[in-house]
Amino acid sequence: MAVIDVTEQDFQQQVIERSRTTPVVVDFWAEWCGPCRALGPVLEKAADAREGGVVLAKLDTDANPDLARSFGIQGIPAVKAFKDGVVVDEFVGVQPPAAVERFFDGLVPSEADRLVGAGDEASLRSALELQPGREDAATALALLLRARGDEDGALAVLENCTGGFQAEGLAARIRLERAPDIDVSAALAALDAGDSERAIDLLLEEIAGAGEHRDDLRRIVVAIFDDLGVEHPVARDGRRRLATALY
Prior knowledge:
Layout: E1 3-5, H1 11-17, E2 24-29, H2 34-49, E3 55-60, H3 65-70, E4 78-83, E5 86-92, H4 97-105, H5 111-118, H6 121-130, H7 135-147, H8 151-159, H9 165-178, H10 185-192, H11 196-207, H12 214-228, H13 233-246
Helix pairs in contact: 2-4, 5-6, 6-7, 7-8, 7-9, 8-9, 9-12, 10-11, 11-12, 11-13, 12-13
């Protein structure tokens, strides 16, 4: 694991100079800081996953107050990423593991990122072994399985990926396509053709009388909103209309 302790005496060499060849993430922490102890293992796991592609340097702010002041550290934990001798990204406070992974991804892709980028079935399965429940890998794999007719396999993959709008939307779509008592083929055809606005209109029309299928219709609509982006006018209007249809 590429984790080192640094001080004011060796910071220039171990962080500034080293970052010219390998990204260095500095964890400004202190022994008394409970949040620091919570964040530390998350940072170490993210660094370890990149197999030497990034160095994690830990700096005790109590033992190195001048250096902490020189970088404007006012609260800890504080994390700064160095490349080519300068700070390129930073955050303050405890962050969830997913946010820490994204922070490290901005410096060097993880092995799971590389596998997702490859996009074939074997690579996607390997990515999910490394990061179970990873939404982009699960969704991509489910799409491959669905395309070859293995809908049960696709749903099994998506079941392990909870909380992701795209994964939940795809699982809902598969269930609705298989349901004998509801026909959303026109809406899905519009969606596949890139006409998100018409797809939303048709799906919202179905919600009122959809009974047990209401939640799956909602999941597909929410996935469309997520794909469009928060600020897209169709998504903004659609969220209001969805709330009206549901409540």
